[in-house]
Amino acid sequence: MDDYSYVDFLCEIGIGSAHPGGVDRTKYIFQKELVKKEMKVLDVGCGTGDTALFLREAFHCKVDTIENHSRMIETIQKKCKEVGTTINVVEGSVEQMPFSNNTYDYIICESVLAFVDANQALEECYRVLKDKGILILNEMSLVQSLNENELNRFKGFYQLQECNTENQWKEKLEQTGFTKIDSLLNSTTIESQPIEISLSPNIDPKLLDMLDEHQRLQQELDGKVGSIVLRCQK
Ligand SMILES: C[S@@+](CC[C@H](N)C(=O)[O-])C[C@H]1O[C@@H](n2cnc3c(N)ncnc32)[C@H](O)[C@@H]1O
What we know:
It is a single chain. The chain is of the alpha/beta class. It has a single domain, classed as Rossmann fold (3-Layer(aba) Sandwich), CATH 3.40.50. Helices cover 38% and strands 23% of the residues. Strands 3-2-1-4-5-7-6 form a 7-stranded mixed β-sheet. The longest helix has 16 residues, at 205-220. The chain starts with 5 loop residues before the first helix and ends with a strand. The relative contact order is 0.17. It binds S-adenosylmethionine (SAM). S-adenosylmethionine (SAM) binds at residues 7, 17-19, 45-47, 51, 66-69, 72, 93-95, 110-112, 115-116. This is Methyltransferase domain-containing protein. InterPro entries: Erg6_SMT_methyltransf (IPR050447), Methyltransf_25 (IPR041698), SAM-dependent_MTases_sf (IPR029063).
């Protein structure tokens, strides 16, 4: 492979949870949610599926996922086989989901909207949620403005389409039609999970360069780029 996208990089280094706060934050988010066994939950841009697997195990509910990266899909399917659980893994885009209107009780979206056309993805989430269904976003957020160089490096490295403050995320939710928008968490750090990889002699040096740049950006932008958790209702 000549060049790796950020998501290719995540696959190559074998990261599990790739969202702010990791799986601990996901557990915290769902602590107070009353997810019943008969409910349908959708994890959009599920990555390797750690959140989806946690939800299935914790609530025994029906869990669907949608993901557009084939390596991520292979990983979640492998994990499901290993633990003997059933999760419906759908290949597709969060910007145009192959699901019927009013299907889900909950949608969880962790570190996905910044990479896509967020307005379109939110419209899709709204469409496939049941009336009074809940959408939870766990996303990066801009805490302080970045200078041009920082913004270019940040958006360039992660291939971001969106770089929003908490208020801008809230406005997008409001514009889509969501109500009861609550801020569950607002952190001035991204709280990325530490990446540990074994330095195999065969590892592509490009991946090591990417790892360096990822760690530099996390350090340099700490306090300027943070993360938010927003909960809202259709
Ligand atoms: C930073 S990772 C987060 C993965 C996962 N949500 C997690 O928290 O570990 C972003 C994920 O969004 C997926 N993604 C990006 N654009 C997408 C799209 N248009 N439709 C579906 N998934 C998408 C990527 O393939 C990747 O798995």
